[in-house]
Amino acid sequence: MTIIKKYGGSIALLVLLMALFEIATDLTGWLEPVLFPGLIKILPELKRSFPKLLQGLVNSFGLLLPSYALALVLGIGGGLLVGFCGRLRTILMPIFRGVSPIPPTMLIPYAIAILPTFWLSSASSSLPAPSGRS
Description:
The protein is elongated. Helix 2 packs across helix 5 and helix 4 runs antiparallel to helix 5 (about 120-125). Helix content is about 75%, strand content about 0%. By secondary structure, it is mostly helical. It has helices at about 5-25, 40-85, 85-100, 105-115, 120-125.
């Protein structure tokens, strides 16, 4: 199956939406140009800023991948340890049940304030939250 056959409808819809956007912005001025700049302004700016966008993507993955690996190792290792050790589970489950309702995004400002570097606070915000299940 060729790409055109498989994604032809999606490509046609994307082209149609871009054409409608171009008509509504640059050609007719129906949309406020300050809030909705046309493709004539957007595409050159995208080309100019693409290296910075790519560098931001690389930096984000530089935080994401080690943090995800650390969360995976600590989550699986800690879960197995607590799961197999009954005494440790008896001690920690009340704490896990108390902490588990707190959304992880609510803990990020505390991580930023407590941890010494922004990289550490970013990495710690992706660690798994305790499940609180027995």
